[in-house]
Amino acid sequence: MKTIRERDRELIWHPYTPMKIWPEAIGIVRGEGSSLIDEQGNKYIDTISSWWVNLHGHAHPYIAQKLSQQLLTLEHCIFAGFTHEPAVRLAERLLDILPGEMRKIFYSDNGSTAVEVAIKMALQYWSNKGVSKKRIIALEGAYHGDTFGAMSVSARSLFTESFAKLLFDVDFIPFPGDANAENSILHLKQLLLNDDVAAFIVEPLVQGTAGMRMYNKEVLSEYFLLCKKHNAIIIADEVMTGFGRTGNLFACDAVSISPDIICLSKGLTGGTMPMGLTACAQHIFDAFYDEDILKTLYHGHSYTANPLACTAALASLDLLLTDSCDANRERINKSHTRFLASLQNNKKISAARLLGTILAIELNTGTHTSYHNKQRDFIYRFFIDRGILIRPLGNIIYLMPPYCITGGELNEIYNCINELLEII
Ligand SMILES: *Cc1c(COP(=O)(O)O)cnc(C)c1O
What we know:
Helices cover about 35% and strands about 15% of the residues. By secondary structure, the protein is α/β, with parallel strands linked by helices. Pyridoxal-5'-phosphate binds near residues 110, 145, 208, 239 and 265.
């Protein structure tokens, strides 16, 4: 009999995968806690929460039980003209805990569409008001998704190269790293003076795909303040930072100024079901609340507010909003902090950073920083061979584990990183 891996190889085209260079995918049959188990029975510690989505471990029995009940009650229904308890309950609970003054929830399917909806809300907000503001500002190195609008507001990169000419123009301000914070803020200030800026979109505190690049809350606060002053809509893309990754429940909790729109996905359902959503403040919604049907937000998806996804999100929130989950996140942060301290003065490392449960280590490997390169592939294999799933971003190794990861598992990962640092 053929393995899953062999059958896959004949039929399936994988995401972000140069199929000729990486034809092999590991066949996973089961997940348990923070581990994935393959068809040969090998175990992999999932240090990246399966692409930043998993919060409480794989195949979590509590979420599974809630989902199976919902499956026998209502699996899906059209969300125009109809509604249901899980969607309403989830909106109530999220609006309660989201930062700032969020008042409405718009459901969709994934992070990219949550961003598309945010961009449409922001652009149509101004056109509904009869104001000509069309420019969008983003950060250099930004990543907001793979659909065309989301690509447009993302850094021009390997990911967008083939479509570069078709993307709409966006102004990118410098990333506010190290000595560049003032400069970045100044750039934003200057662009806002034009008065044609519709929106500013940002990954708050951590740029994920750019390599877990971090910047401080004072800068974020300054960005938000400037946007408020110049009447530009603030879109906080919390697709990755949401649901506790940065220490606070949401990254924007670190600042006192409220964004106008927040995008969520990834951890939203605890990593169980695909779902995205865009939350907005009252004034955004009000610009669409009109007898003129041209002012409607004409956007939707077949699976909008899927009851199973909403149920998974509610179950995930039950687990997230507990003292024991807080304690776990605190424990991971402390453990990362100790490991980070042990790496001080290591010549193989050019930079290291930590926020909440996210730890990133930049290897000192000269120029090899692109998404795909030989060293990156070597590092990936090195960890896989030792039963650890780490997906380096170029020369950057990062850990963003599920909150249930044990101290023993963390030590196993740290030891492996130390082993790697010995040989490179
Ligand atoms: C992953 C990600 C997205 C895109 O989400 P998908 O569900 O992969 O489409 C958007 N923004 C940020 C910050 C992300 O990390």
